[in-house]
Amino acid sequence: METLVEEAVAEALRDGGGEVIRLYVSACTERMAPLFVGLRAGTPGREADLDFYAESVRELWHADRPLADAAERVRLLERFPELQPDEDEITDVADTYAFFAVLCLRYALLAHGSGSADDAVSCGHAALASMGMLDQNVVGAGLLAEEQRLQSLSLSGDASGLWNASVAAGRERFRAVLGRLRR
Q: Which among 5, 12, 40, 171 is most buried, taking Cβ atoms within 10 Å?
């Protein structure tokens, strides 16, 4: 599979080991979290999913050790409607970005638990693909380039600066998607 993740980033993940991988996927998922949480908030019957998603993102930031329950979290996440096969394509704006946010978390949990660089690259690819789509639909957004920059930054090892940048980027993405919903 061809991926949008820059080769230098993918190579650094392969060479960097578990903690580098865990920090990288934590940051990717933090940037995507507002899309799921914001787009699914207030949806009847999704309260437990929202809590689970937010708790999982929080737990990912413990990059010094793999999540002991990562496999169980993946199993629970795969029950989310966003990951259930459907004969209809996803065409709704909110559904599209919620799907990418859940997909990003799925790969992040897999990578966090196993230390797999391939799963980390898939996590980054989901974030980049969604930002590429958003750039195509929001004039002058530049979100794909920002995601690429932040993915490279996440290899630096500075968790606090990365968390702040990821939270800010996540809010910006959510505002961009909300702008598309209002049209």
A: 5
Which tokens in the block code for residue 89? 């394509």
- Residue 39 CA to residue 41 CA, distance in Å, equals 6
List the one residue out of 121, 40, 25 whose CA is nearest residue 80.
40
CA of residue 61 relative to chain centroid, distance? 13
Integer Cα distance of 140 and 14 in angstroms = 33
Tens digit of each residue's pLDDT, the chain (183 residues): 466 899 999 999 999 989 999 999 999 999 999 999 999 999 999 999 999 999 999 999 999 999 999 999 999 999 999 998 776 776 789 999 999 999 999 999 999 999 999 999 999 999 999 999 999 988 888 999 999 999 999 998 778 889 999 999 999 999 999 998 876
Torsion angles phi and psi, residue 58, rounded to 5: -60, -45
DSSP character at residue 45 = T
Residue 142's region, left for phi above 0, alpha for psi from -120 to 50, else beta, is left
Contact 58, 48 (CB under 8 A): no
